Amino acid sequence: MDRAALADFLRRRRELLRPEDVGIGAGVRRRTPGLRREEVAALAGMSVDYYTRLEQQRGPQPSEQMVAAIARALRCSLDERDHLFHLAGQNAPVRMHRADHVDPAILRVLDRLADTPAIVVNHLGETLVENPMAAALLGTSVGLSGNERYQAWRWFVSGTERAKYAAEEHGHLGRVVVASLRAAVGLAGPGDRRATELVAELERRSPEFAELWALHEVASRWSDNKTIVQPELGRITVDCQVLHTDDQAQALLLFTAPPGSEDAQKLELLGVLGQQTFDAAAAPR
Length: 285
Fold this sequence. Notes:
It contains twelve helices and five strands. By secondary structure, the protein is an alpha+beta fold. The chain folds into two domains: 3-87, Orthogonal Bundle (434 Repressor (Amino-terminal Domain)), CATH 1.10.260; 104-282, Beta-Lactamase (2-Layer Sandwich), CATH 3.30.450. The chain has a five-stranded antiparallel β-sheet, sandwiched between helices. The longest helix has 21 residues, at 262-282. The termini are far apart. The relative contact order is 0.10.
């Protein structure tokens, strides 16, 4: 527990809030910025003396329930809440709740990306939805069954994911896949049985995965530069941008190339070829 940092954080958060932010009338005699200590204490359901001692670096270590109550009273964001738990010497609650239905806000963004390859994946690397451009660039990975649904499985066991990328990048991308999976498992917590079973099966089936997993590298999905080997157009180097939902349960991946570059021209051509493919598939026979 970092008493000094905890006290400073509580005071600064309290001073940033306004009475109207928490449904309290400002009154006519308010002379200090933000909320009063007694107001925060009331919102958190604790005594004024207890809260005051925390701000004065004199209080005992607050319980997880008390920290959560203070975070709600101070209207903390998820990041601020987790930081508050850390300062109080407690483990932050698990953020991630398993969600296999695409977040509506993410889906709205995807619907506006007709000319950009884009996919939505869950925390375990399962593709939930993809647009036609992404299917043309990477091949479809929606609707797969069993462990084949997961990117790590396709990379380390079946090899179908690995075959989509330039061979010289396999070492780097393999580590990214493992580090992302470890971050997802950590966020999901021990109650995510599907994640636990996936990791155990990967360790059993792939010595390469087991070796990388033992490195304990942890990183959320990040922006990266990748060279994809597309069957019709050959090598296409793209920038992969990642947009997460707040709880990191889902991510939107976009694949772009610098305007005017040869790679951008290939993506434009891919849009035409992909549309022809989908039109042909939809045509009556």
